[in-house]
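Board notes (copied after class):
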Amino acid sequence: MIEVVVLNKVDEAAAVVRLVLGKANDTALPSFEAGAHIDIRLPSGLVRQYSLCRLQSDPRYYEIAVLKDPQSRGGSTEVHALTIGDVVHVSEPKNHFPLRSKEAKSLLIAGGIGVTPLLPMAQTLQCAGTPFEFHYCGKSPRTAAFSSILKQASFADKMQFHFSSEPQTSGRMDIRSVLSQHVADSDLYVCGPAEFISSVLEYAQALNWPEEKLHREFFAAPAMDIDQGDNHAFQVKVASTGQVFEVAANQSISDVLEEHALFVPVSCCEGVCGTCLTDVISGDIEHRDVFLSKQEKAEGKQILTCCSRAKNAGDVIELDL
């Protein structure tokens, strides 16, 4: 982890703050590309992931924008309590939501704070001269971070705003209409609340968008129709040692690996962030994450150990560890 200082704190919208982070010695931070995020270890010890919301115009700084979530588990509340001069620790940037190609025509759709990873994408596409559209959905300009800045950005002509509280001037986005215009020629990148992303993806799939052109990043897991009471016990095998461990109905694979001093990093514990992604050698998986694509889940070569399980009681999942 890299020790950084909060250099600036700006209110970007109602309940949204932007933090500028940099090293105390004013030296460069590791570079990143559009779609990247950093892990932040807060003073309390909590670790959270936040998207880097602007490309680096100066290699000494990272910028994040954080919504104070009413259902916060502590992370966003603590971020909002930070002040200039506070010290936090961050990881090097990680990117599970990259642009497939800087040259491929793209459709960017943001819901609320989901605008953060899409802003650097728009900057990248604009610099490359690549055609794109950027649709930003929110309740109102007051709650939509960066909305006033985006209206004056170099790519302002590619922005379309959809504010549900202003039906006379913008109103809700007609998702089907927007998606139907780009089925054959664009990659789709969508980020925002879980239900928003799921709705956009459902429309895209109904319109026969190719799976490989659908890209999304969840900040939290959507509600899933899974009865945790139906969990069953299974086994997990470590390929390198041949060890086999029992995973009880009330345990995750991550829990069991930790019990036996086998380190696989875990962060969100919801199958969202991809931190615990592990290769699988054999075994039938019941995927409970929103990180892997449908195709990746069908291939069965990777598992999110924090939430996914074996399909059947007594099955063995062999991990490439």
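Comment from the instructor: The longest strand covers residues 2-13. Residues 115-128 form the longest helix (14 residues).
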